[in-house]
Amino acid sequence: MELQETSYQIQGVDLLKVAEEFGSPVYVYDADKIVKQYKRLTDAFKGVDLKIKYACKALTNINILKLLRSQGSGLDTVSIQEVKLGLEAGFEPHEILYTPNCVSFEEIKKAVEIGVQINIDNISILEQFGDAYGSDIPVCIRLNPHILAGGHSHISVGHIDSKFGISIHQVPHLLRVVNTYGIKVNGLHMHTGSDILDAQVFLIGAELLFNVAREFKDLEFMDFGSGFKVGYRQGDVTTDIEDLGKQISEKFSQFCEEYGRELELWFEPGKFLVSESGYFLVRSNVIKQTTSTVFVGVDSGQNHLLRPKMYDAYHHITNLSNPNGTKRIYSVVGYICETDTLGYDRQLNEVREGDILAIHNAGAYAISMSSNYNSRYRPAEVLIHKGKAQLIRKRESFDDLIRNQISVEI
User: Fold this and answer.
1) What pLDDT shows up at residue 68?
2) 140 is catalytic
3) CA dist 392 to 76, 128, 155, 225, 382, Å?
4) What percentage of the chain carries pLDDT values higher than 70?
5) Which of 74, 107, 253, 273 has the highest Cβ tally under 10 A?
6) Which residues 6+ apart lie within 8 Å of 159 measured at CB?
7) What is the pLDDT of residues 310-327, one digit of tens each?
8) How confident is the model at residue 3 (pLDDT cuts 50, 70, 90)?
9) Residue 2, number of CB atoms within 10 A of its CB
10) What does the DSSP 8-state code read for residue 376?
11) Where do the DSSP E strands lie in 145-184?
12) Which residues, 6 or more positions from 109, have their beta carbon under 8 angstroms from its beta carbon?
């Protein structure tokens, strides 16, 4: 992990001073870490026409989108709202991939009007698409390879019982629909899940895609999704990006030679690019000792960091205010009216009321999954860029809670 137990600075900026200036709780992102991850990924693939489409559901602040766009990234979106955020951040429509699931055809029509790359994962929707557009609008097809992969059942999306993608076994039906309507298929896509360690998972999926690709003569790209594992604990095993890049590049180049022309190779990393850049700073409100546990109650909870509750996810926690304190065992819990434990039985430097704790790996799926549960405000966001901490989202206020409510006579 980038943040060491003896140093609490990012690009020379003291995180305690960030909490002092912007208050707590607050999300803090390291722009340099995002750029480093992006370059590591692009450097891993040699001899192929690689295109990165950042999966913005991980973190949609337009400043993060602008940062990745400045590095050459495109965008992977799953809703028309994310498409609009991408446009707001300066992406051109052709740089945006739109991969919805279970949306109305009306939303897909809006995406077509904007001009983004459409990715369809449902034969029924594909039939409607063909009826509406014929061969006028090219489309990518999302296939379900029936590969069970991912660190948790909620993020394993390529298995046989998943709602995502058109089954690899339905390819004959898919081809009949494509041929009937004259649909131009310009891309093939798969995504098996998250937290994938083994390059073989991607290689098995690649072979499946290559076999299907031989049925389509107008392909421009193949999209292998993402799912690269990042480290949450000290010593975590992570995806060997360099090995993956070498193996996939070789296989893809061989296929392109057989196919007769060079295609673009797409990936859609989200968590890999932004997770480790993020630190969620919270303040200790109370220290509460029971017969079996010492709790640290903080000024946040599952409303701001849902992953521990949703996925049993581990996030490393550091006491910024007392880095040399005696190590003690605590359970860090939130202020929500539910059991919203952020970390069980953690060895932390002694925590006192008022201390600032840093929760690591808060760049992905933290604020993007946050809510106003218990009528709490969403925190501010701060980006550390070129050695300066900049506010990129204001902390919510009571006005934000009632902005769209309409008072009527009762």
Assistant:
1) 98
2) no
3) 22, 40, 29, 28, 5
4) 94
5) 273
6) 146, 147, 148
7) 999 999 999 999 999 999
8) very low
9) 13
10) P
11) 166-167
12) 132
- Mean pLDDT, the chain, rounded, equals 93
- CA distances 189 to 12, 36, 110, 221, Å, are 41, 26, 21, 9
Hey, what are 69's tokens?
A: 């766009």
Phi, psi for 93 (deg, rounded to 5): -50, -40
56, 140, 256, 337: the active-site residue: 337
* Measured CA angle at 395 (ends 390, 400), to 5 deg: 140
Q: What is the pLDDT of residues 54-93, one digit of tens each?
A: 999 999 999 999 999 999 999 999 999 999 999 999 999 9
For residue 79, give both structure tokens: 């809703």
pLDDT of res. 146 = 83
In terms of Cβ atoms closer than 10 Å to its own Cβ (0-12, 13-18, 19+), residue 167 is middle
Domain architecture of the chain: domains with CATH: 9-28+275-397 (2.40.37.10), 99-269 (3.20.20.10)
Each residue's pLDDT tens digit, 209-226 = 999 999 999 999 999 998
- Please check whether residue 230 is in contact with residue 209, taking contact to mean a CB–CB distance below 8 angstroms: no
Q: Count the residues in the chain.
A: 410
What is the spatial distance between Cα 95 and Cα 133, in angstroms, rounded to a whole number? 21
**Which amino acid, one-letter code, is at 181?**
Y
pLDDT in tens, 194-209: 677 777 878 888 899 9
**Nearest-10 Cα torsion for 99, 103, 105, 106:** -100
- Give dist(CA 282, CA 25) in Å, integer: 5
Q: What residues are paired with 385 via a beta bridge?
A: 388
One-letter identity of residue 310: M
Buried b (16+ CB within 10 A) or exposed e, 333-352: bbbbeeebbbbeebebbebe
Residue 112: exposure state from Cβ atoms within 10 A (0-12, 13-18, ≥19) = middle
**Predicted local confidence at residue 158, as pLDDT:** 41
- The neighbouring-strand residues paired with 392 are none
Q: State the number of CA atoms in the 13 A half-sphere of 214 facing the CB.
A: 8
Of 108, 49, 12, 63, the C-alpha closest to 262 is 49
* DSSP character string of 51-85: EEEEEGGG---HHHHHHHHHTT-EEEESSHHHHHH
Candidates 207, 83, 74, 205; CA nearest to 144 is 205
